[in-house]
Design brief:
Layout (H helix, E strand, L loop, with lengths): L1 H5 L2 H14 L4 H12 L3 H9 L4 H6 L14 E2 L2 E2 L6 H17 L4 H4 L6
């Protein structure tokens, strides 16, 4: 996990977007999940993409981690998200889990707790 935390945000995020796009989903959908989870604005997300922020710092500096993200459950990489004790690791895995669900064809409103759209 340390290696991932030190990677440029733009590089890791591009991989998440590519995963979704390979399955017919869009960057806008990945953005929506990311904005919901972290509290960044679309403009702030774009600044992070263009800047030199690391993936770890992207989460450490998130304006407002959505408290409903605690409701995201399930396995990602063989680990149950709800059992991850470290908050930073959990946030990263929640985003992985959300994008994974997106790539598996789940509708956004089923992925995002509290969403009715």
């Amino acid at each position: 996990m340390d290696r991932v935390l030190k990677m440029p945000f733009s590089q890791v995020y591009s991989l998440l977007v590519a995963k979704a796009e390979r399955k017919g989903r869009t960057r806008q959908e990945v953005d929506r999940l990311t904005l919901w989870l972290t509290g960044y604005s679309p403009e702030e997300l774009e600044q992070c993409m263009e800047g030199t922020v690391t993936y770890g710092d992207f989460f450490r500096n998130a304006p407002a981690i959505n408290p409903l993200s605690q409701q995201v459950t399930g396995k990602i990489c063989g680990v149950r998200v709800e059992e991850i004790a470290d908050p930073l690791t959990r946030q990263i895995r929640v985003l992985d889990k959300l994008v994974d669900g997106l790539a598996k064809g789940k509708p956004l409103e089923k992925l995002i707790p509290g969403e009715n759209s």
